[in-house]
Design brief:
627 residues, alpha/beta, Signal recognition particle alu RNA binding heterodimer, srp9/1, Rossmann fold, 6-stranded mixed sheet, 48% helix, binds adenosine-5'-diphosphate, binds zinc ion
Amino acid sequence: MAKNTESAWRSWLLIALIVCAFFSMYRMNPHAPATKEIALLDFYRAMEQGKLVDPVTRVFDRDEGETYLTGEMETDKVDAKGDPLAGGDGAPVRERYRVTLVPGENSSIMDDLLNNSIRVEVKEKRGAISPFVMQLIFFFGFMFLFYWFFYRRMGSGGGLFGFGKSKAKVLTSAEEKRKVTFADVAGIDEAREEVQEIVEFLKNPADFKRLGGKIPKGVLMVGPPGTGKTLLAKAIAGEAKVPFFAMSGSDFEEMFVGVGASRMRDVFAEAKKRAPCIVFIDEIDSIGQKRTGAGAIGGSHAYEQTLNTMLVEMDGFDANEGVIVIAATNRPETLDSALLRPGRFDRQVVVELPTLKGRREILALHGKKIKFSPDADLDRVARGTPGFSGADLANLLNEAALLAVRKKLDGVDMETLDEARDKVIWGRERKSAGYSQKDREYTAWHEAGHAILQVLLPDADPLHKVTIIPRGRALGATMALPERDVLNRTKKHFLAEMRICCGGRIAEETVLGDISTGASQDIAQATHIAREMICRYGMSDKFGFQAFMEPSQFSGQDLPPAFSEETSREIDVEVKKLVDDAYSDAKKMLKANRAKLETLAKLLLEKETMDGREVEKLVRGEETEAG
Ligand code: ADP
Ligand code: ZN
């Protein structure tokens, strides 16, 4: 988006410049209607009638070799009724005049002016540059600026005048020197093996063909953000030592219809010139969404053009030419099926979130550049980061290094690694966020409600931390971490999650007697879980082993729900039932543990952050005492 605002900004600046240019041309015109050339006689008449405004300026213009008087006079223009014209505030209308004096015959005029007690200012206009020359200079100046803009935009492609130029970035020679190779990619071995073949082909197309290999034209990399899709595509180019053109689907979102399409043509034209090479299109879903036919409105038309152009280009070349298009997406289900037809993106490489082993490898790879203290255990970090992508892990190490520098440590230690991990998951702590004691109280009770249930429910993930220090947009957080990589979730787990969601609101209500907006995220979460259980996972008693396709969340192309309106209503009822059950269950549990809730909330107000184990001790410890 930053790119778009920048080009909009440039366009505006350009328009402003043009306006200025015209305006200044107008001002430069010496015969602009604002100054009226009058006869000497009229000047005298005005002087006698007392209409000359004090002072008068006598100008000797060197260039023209003439002297003239200039200043303002009140006009005796009249309106239709014969009354003198008046300005907005009733003042008489003034007019700028200029009267050229006959050479050598102006001393008497000076006397007359002085007799009428009108001051005379004397000026000499010595500008070696005549107004005409000035105009020329201005004109060329602006032409130059114009050209400069135009040129700049062409250079980087896009903007108001760079209509069709491609935005594809080719690696510069400096970047090419420190090429990305497979050695820079860790933890996604399967994907890496799958693309090995492409490298072989690019390295030696003739051999590859002779042996009967079939070369794909398009490869679709599918996987969550940050798993290394771009990195892998770059590594393919690096290994094969071929140019790498990179762009993003969002680069084709332009203000004019047709710009995206022509940009696409440019990319392919350039790529064909430099084949064998790799064209990488990130976020392909932003141009390759399913075409909706009748339902399509406005904007989607431009995408369709871009998409069609890309398909035509891909169909138009022979795979043997050596242009391989690699596209990345994390939402393959939204892609138009035309993209996936044979001869187009008919090969898919799935890039998954790394497993425990993969995370270890990625941490080791990125950790090479970092100095650790002896207690730092990257294995433990790998275990504590299920669900992290490669980019998240790289980010974690980076944050840890920064934190260590700020703490003036000799090396990154375990505590700092933990801190960095929390920051990557839950956002940065905002200690300075000025929030009132009342906000803190609400947050303490709210989080205590979540945390107690997190510990009490056997099917919930272990509690990692609970805090009332604001982080990101939340005022507090109850942090749970799954014990190991989660590949499969159970119904009991979902039910527990829903109960935990309810805990915050219930605690506020039972103790403080009022409820806050702090629960909005929890409410959304609980509702979402209930709906997913019913529609996707067949986990409701009422509907059992059935799936209901939900309207797609993606804008502009809602699919018709694959069920009747009646079913839809029944689903709503069932969602409500699941959520209501969770709420009343959670309420019962918190009521039974009211004393612990109170202790925890008070401790939180005091300590701000508590470790999962501390809370567990508190909850279980008192449990044994009571039982
Ligand atoms: P994607 O294209 O899938 O969104 P990127 O390739 O842009 O992800 O990854 C962003 C960064 O994260 C990379 O530049 C790299 O530093 C790091 N990264 C991601 N995955 C890996 C991986 N498998 N191995 C090493 N580094 C990775
Ligand atoms: Zn909450």
